[in-house]
Amino acid sequence: MQPTVALPESVTWRVQLDRAMWVAGVRALMLQALHPVAMQGVWQRSDFLQDPTGRLLRTADFVAATTYGSPQEAEELGERVRAVHRRLAFTDPATGAAHRADEPGLLVWVHCAEVVSYLEVVTRAGLRLTRADADAYLAEQTRTARYVGLDPADVPGSLAQMRGYLARMRPHLRVTREAELTVRFLLWPRVPRRLRRLAPLKPLWWPIGALAYYTLPGWARSAYRTLPEPPGTQEAATLGLRGVRAALHLTPEALYNRLFDEVTVRRARLARLRLEAVGYDLGHGFRGIRTTRRSHPDPGSVPRAAVDG
């Protein structure tokens, strides 16, 4: 039987199986939108505005495949992603320059905005990680970056490297009209036709969108200025994030899995079979395997601004 891409003992499992990842994924999109060129690629060549849930579910499937999928599953999905990127060309209206979606500089930004958001949101929501754990997570994710066509050596693999990268990127980031519209859309997205039956549940999205916005770095919120931020907002956001995480973790797995596409649920079933075949006990699910096979982390935790400073 093939092994999984990341072992259950890895930090990747602890971070990316946490259900606060729903907020983290939306936060990543808001952060990515601050790169003007990357934003144009999404704006001109993506179906994101027509099918926002589809974009999130595709991202969730990529996370699943590179967390607990087999190497073959991850490589096949990575090849499809790389093939799509190779075909996507667009023009930066500010400069007239032609770009491709698979330019390394754009891919590195998208990757870093994602993994920073995953790490910071999940730890702020209550997952306890040491600084060494955070370094290990970013190092593990350099290998994941290979699936989208990046050289792992070109991707920040520690907190210090990530801080340096983000500091170098800050002068190149700004709020464009497209970025502002994207953030507003993410706060209250259109319900796709195929999900019209769920339209009455749309108000449940608001906490996800608002928490994603309020967990952005301070400099990003200051640039967007989309939502008001009276005194105490950040403290309330932390409490709200922990409450949403707790509620999601209390959701029965059978019900929770309905949030995902069938292909992602099928990956989980196959991963269970692979892990059971090599002796893991999944009686308490994926999260149970993580807590039984690994000792609890030290009391020290990673501050929510450990990466962004």
Provide tags for this entry.
two-stranded antiparallel ribbon, EC 1.-.-.-, disordered C terminus, globular, mainly alpha, 15 helices
What would your notes on this structure say?
- The protein is mainly alpha-helical and 309 residues long.
- The chain has one domain (11-190, 204-293).
- Helix content is 59%, strand content 2%.
- It has 15 helices and two strands.
- It has a two-stranded antiparallel sheet with strand order 1-2.
- A hairpin with a 6-residue loop joins strand 1 and strand 2.
- Helix 2 (21-32) packs antiparallel against helix 6 (104-125), helix 2 (21-32) crosses helix 10 and helix 10 (205-214) packs across helix 12 (233-250).
- It is globular.
- The N and C termini lie far apart (43 Å).
- Residues 290-309 are annotated as: Disordered.
- GO terms for molecular function: oxidoreductase activity.
- InterPro entries: MPAB/Lcp_cat_dom.
- Residues 13-245 form the ER-bound oxygenase mpaB/mpaB'/Rubber oxygenase catalytic domain.
- Pfam families: MPAB_Lcp_cat.
Number of DSSP helical runs? 15
How far is the first residue's CA from the last residue's CA?
Answer: 43 Å
Beta-sheet strand percentage? under 5%
Structural class: mainly alpha
Rg result: 19 Å
Tell me the number of structural domains: 1
**Could you list the spans in which at least 5 consecutive residues all have pLDDT below 50?**
290-309
Biggest β-sheet: strands ordered side by side in the sheet: 1-2
Shape estimate: globular
- H-E order: HHHHHEEHHHHHHHHHH
Domain ER-bound oxygenase mpaB/mpaB'/Rubber oxygenase catalytic: 13-245
Keywords: Oxidoreductase
Region (Disordered): 290-309
Organism: Nocardiopsis sediminis
